[in-house]
Amino acid sequence: VSDEISILLNGAVRTATPLAIAALGESVSERAGVLNLGLEGCIIAGAFASVIGAVAAGPIGGFTAAILAGATIASIFALFTVVLRADQIVTGTAVNLLAFGLTGTLYSLMYGVTGTSLSLPTITSWAIPILDEIPGIGSALFSQTAVTYLLYVLAPVVWWILNRTYLGLNLRAVGERPAAGIAAGIGVRRLQGSAVLFGGALGGLAGGALVIGHAGTFTTGMSAGRGFIAIAIVVLGRWSPLGVMGAALLFGAATAGQFALQAGGFALPYQLFLALPYVLTLLTLAGFAGRVRAPSALGQRELDA
Amino acid sequence: VSVIWIGLSDSLAHAIPLLLVGLAVAVAFRASVWNIGVDGQLLIGATTAAALDLFAAPHIGFLSVPLSIIAAGVAGALWAGVAAWLRARFEVNEVISTIMLNFVALHLVSYLVRGPLQEHTKIYPQTETILLASRLPIILPGTRVHLGLVIGVVTAVTLWWVFRFTAAGFKLRLVGQNRHAAEVAGGIHSGRVIAIALIWSGALAGVAGAVELKGVTYALYENLSPGYGYSAIAVALIAGLSPLWIILSAFGFGGLAYAGGMLQRDFGIPATVASIVEGLIILIVLAFAALGRVWSVGSYTVAARDSS
To answer: What ipTM was estimated for this complex?
Structure first.
C-alpha cells in the first residue's frame, strides 16, 4: 500500500471524526424519537465556547466549555420540543439561527469584526505504538488526536447502552411508541430530554474538535453545515452507532478524496465525489440500498399519537 | 429625508428575496410539509436562469427575462419534486431528503461555476455577468429596488386569493391542520396534496433564485443565498403563513437586514445580530402557540404531524 493511500485514509479519519461525534449524539436523540435539527447550532456553539475555554484553561478547558455550550443550546431545543411539544423542525431552525447569530456576534465583539483572529495551539496527534504500524490502515486509525480515540471508546459504549441495557430499551421504546412508553411508566419527557442533551453535548464536542483539533481558531459559521451532514450520516448509518461510524468515514473519505482527485489531475469533477454520499443517503432512504427503517415516532410532536 | 429614503428603499430591496422565499415556505407549511430545501431549490432556479440568460439571451433579448424566470420556477419545482416523489413513493421524510438535495444542489453549482459555466478568465468561481437585457430593471430610480418587487407582490396577492377562495387552498389547509380528518371526513387524497404543496413551494423558491440573479447578483455563484431558506421560516411564521402579511413581514426582515449592515458599517456591531433576532422571533411565535394563546399561526405549527 502506497504512502498516498495511507495519507488519504488518515485524512479521511481526521475529517470524519467531528462528523462521527456529532452523528453519534444525534443518533441517540433520534432513537428516542427526537430529530434535533438544531445540531448545527450545537456544533457552532461548541466551536465558539471552545475558544473561550481554551484561552482560559487550555485544551481540556476548551473541550469542557464546548460540551457545556452544545448542551446549553440543546436544552433550549429540548425546552421547546420535549416540554412544550413545539415542532422539532421549526424549533431546530430557530435554534440554528440563534446560535449562528450569537456566536458570530460575540466573537466579532470580542475579537473584532474584521476577524484579526487569534490562533490557538491545536492538539497534536498521538501515534499509538505498534498499532500504528499495521500496514495500510495503521496510521489512518491510530495516528490521530485524542478526540478520535475517545470516539473509538464512545461508539461501542453507546451501542452497548442502546442494545444491552434497560435504559437503552426504554429509549428505543420511546422512539417507537411514546404512548406505550407512558403506559409502561417510563418517564418519556425525561428520557427524550436527556437524549437531546446528550446529543447536544456531543455536538458541542464536535465543534470543539473543529477548533482545537483542526482550525486553531473560530470563524463565523465555521460549522459549515456539518450538523446537517451529521443528520445525513445518521440516516446512512441506519441509526446504529457502529453504522454511523462507517457512514461518517464514507463522508470523510469523500472530502479527503476530493483533494487527491484535484492533486492527481483527474478529469472527473471532484464535486461529483462530494455529492455522492448525499445521493447514496437518498437511495438508502428510498430503500435501494437494503432495508432501512427510521424510529417510528421520529419527529413526531404529540406523545399520544 | 434622504437618509430615511435610503433606509426604506434598501429595506425594500432586501425584502424582495425574503418575500418570495417566505411565500415558498408558506405554501409548504400550510400543508404541514417541512420544506427545508428552499435554499437548494433557489440555487437550482438561479442556475437554470443563468444558463438560459447566458446562452439564449443574445438571441432572444428581453424575452429572456420572463422565459428564464418561468424556467427557474419549473426547475425549482422539479428539484422539490424529487423529494415529493420520494415521499409519495417510498415514504421518505421530506425534511431529510430536502437537506440532502440542498447539498447536491450546492455541489452541482460548485462544479458548474468552476467548469462549464465559469467566466471566461477562469479565475473566479462564478459565471459571466448576464446581459443588460436579461436583468430586472430598477423601478425606483436611484435605489436598488428592482422589478422583482412587483413579481413578489403579485405572487403574494395571487396566493392569498388561492388560499382564500379556491378548493385547492382549502384542501391545503385541511391537510395541514389534520391529515387524518381531511382523508376520512373530507375524502381528500392527502398524499397528493402534500406532493403538490412541496412542488409549488419549490417552484416559488426557484423563481426567487432567478429574481435574485436577475435583480441583484447578475452572476451565478455558490453563496447566492445567504441562508434565505432559513430566514424564510421566520418571515412566514410571524405572518401566520398568510401571504398578505408576508409582504409586511418580508419588509420588516428586509429592514432588519438593512439595519444589520448599517450597524456593522457605522458602529462596528456585527451584522449577525439579524440572525439572533430571526431565531428569537421564531421561538417567540412557537412559545405563544404552545402556551395556547393561539393566533392563526398556532393551528399550523402546533397541529403539524399529528397523523404521521
So the answer is: 0.90
